[in-house]
Design a protein that fits this description.
Blueprint (H helix, E strand, L loop, with lengths): L3 H32 L3 H14 L3 H20 L9 H31 L6 H35 L2
Length: 158
C-alpha cells in the first residue's frame, strides 16, 4: 500500500464517521423534536437549519470526504493486489452513493421545496407532514450507509 493511501483512508473514515454522526443526531433527536412542535415552528426551524448548514466547515467535511472517497474508490482497482483494496473501494462507494448521492438526489430537493413553503399556511403544514416522514426515512438510510462506509474504510487498514 502506498504511503498516501493509509492517510487518505483515515481522512475518509473520520469524515464519513463525522457526517454519519451528524445525520444520526438529526434522525434521533432533531427531527423528532421538530415533529413535536407546531408546523409553523418546525418548518421555520428546519428552514433555518437548512440555511445554516451551508457553511465552509460543513462543505469542507462533506465535500472533502467525497473527494477523498472518490480517490480511494477509483484507485482500488489499480491496487487490487494490496490488502484492503476491496474494503477501500466499498467504503468510498458507500459514502459517495449512500451519503452524497442520496443527499443530492433526495434530501436537497426536499429541502429546497420546504424552503419555498410558507410556514404559516395550510399548504406549508401539509408539506411539512410529508417532509418529516420522507426526509427522516431517507436520512436514516444516509446515516446507516455513512457508518458502514466508515467501518469498511477502517477494515481496509486492519
Amino acid at each position: 500500500m502506498s504511503d498516501l493511501i493509509p492517510t487518505l483512508v483515515v481522512l475518509a473514515a473520520v469524515g464519513s464517521g463525522l457526517v454519519a454522526g451528524l445525520l444520526f443526531a438529526f434522525s434521533t433527536s432533531v427531527m423528532p423534536a421538530l415533529g413535536r412542535r407546531p408546523a409553523p415552528e418546525g418548518i421555520a426551524a428546519m428552514q433555518a437549519m437548512n440555511s445554516a448548514i451551508l457553511n465552509p466547515l460543513f462543505g469542507l467535511l462533506f465535500g472533502g470526504t467525497a473527494v477523498v472517497s472518490l480517490a480511494l474508490a477509483a484507485s482500488a482497482p489499480f491496487t487490487g493486489d494490496e490488502a484492503g483494496a476491496g474494503w477501500r473501494a466499498a467504503g468510498g462507494l458507500l459514502y459517495l452513493v449512500g451519503v452524497v448521492g442520496v443527499t443530492m438526489v433526495v434530501n436537497v430537493p426536499m429541502n429546497e421545496s420546504l424552503d419555498r413553503a410558507d410556514p404559516g399556511s395550510e399548504a406549508g403544514a401539509a408539506e411539512w407532514g410529508r417532509y418529516l416522514r420522507r426526509w427522516t426515512g431517507w436520512n436514516h438510510l444516509r446515516t446507516a450507509l455513512g457508518a458502514v462506509a466508515a467501518t469498511a474504510l477502517v477494515l481496509s487498514v486492519l
